[in-house]
């Protein structure tokens, strides 16, 4: 398993802030700034959020591929922020996802993270959502398979663990697996360690995230902010062991969304997370 960083960890530097919780910094980053930071922090891999990049810029994707290849940096391409396919209610978003697949291929990514929705997109019954999503995922999978790319569907605070498994198993393809976010199902009040045991066998990518509870409205991200990995509620050694037992050999991509007050800067939180993960992995042998 390779230690990496998801570029969303530095979303404020790319111009996105959670309203009422975060402020934008004076400095703004390009993707090259992010790659420089990832190198400085000793990352072996990156997950590149397409929402912070132009679509279809072949000069850019060729340059990114060359830079990553030169540094022997593994990569995941990430599409779908913030609402993906809107739980099936926005079939037109599929065309955006398919266009992003072309960027993923151009940058040399073998895995592309996707999401079917997000907090607030659920509608009707699970049967209603399933009926809306499966045809879209089937078309998405066919396009990915043709390019030799595996789609990794994230548990994005929109799906319970059994629902994610239902979608993946219903498509039944080696080219559709899971982007396992370690904390998101806790935000849906599921036991994150039981979820890890269920979901680890399907993982093709990860968001290694730890959270704490701060009080207030548990339906908001302010209640469940990110903290450096190892500082929150998750038993990360147990979760990593579940991934190891399942044979996962992909990227462990540290992701910070809303960083809890009192935990320093994003760079400090990511650095602390990587150092913690290195210690845990070393202890696993």
Please sum up the structure shown.
With 285 residues, the protein is an alpha/beta fold.
Q: Please list the strands of the largest sheet in the order they lie side by side.
A: 7-6-5-4-3-2-1-10
Helical content band:
25-40%
What spatial form do the alpha-carbon principal axes imply? globular
Instruction: Return the string of H and E elements.
Output: EHEHEHEHEHEHEEEHEH
Rounded Rg: 18 Å
Main β-sheet: number of strands, strand sense, barrel status? 8 strands, parallel
Mean pLDDT: 97
Number of strands: 10
- Low-pLDDT residue intervals, each spanning 5 or more residues: none
Protein structure class: alpha/beta
Distance between the termini: 12 Å
Q: Hey, roughly how much beta strand do the residues contain?
A: 15-25%
Oligomeric state = single chain
Number of helices: 8
Features:
285 residues; alpha/beta; 8-stranded parallel sheet; 10 strands; globular
Description:
α4 packs across α5. The model has no long low-confidence stretch (mean pLDDT 97). With 285 residues, the chain is α/β, with parallel strands linked by helices. The protein has eight helices and ten strands. α6 links the parallel β6 and β7. The strands form two sheets. The chain has an eight-stranded parallel beta sheet with strand order 7-6-5-4-3-2-1-10, with helices on one face. A two-stranded antiparallel sheet has the order 8-9.
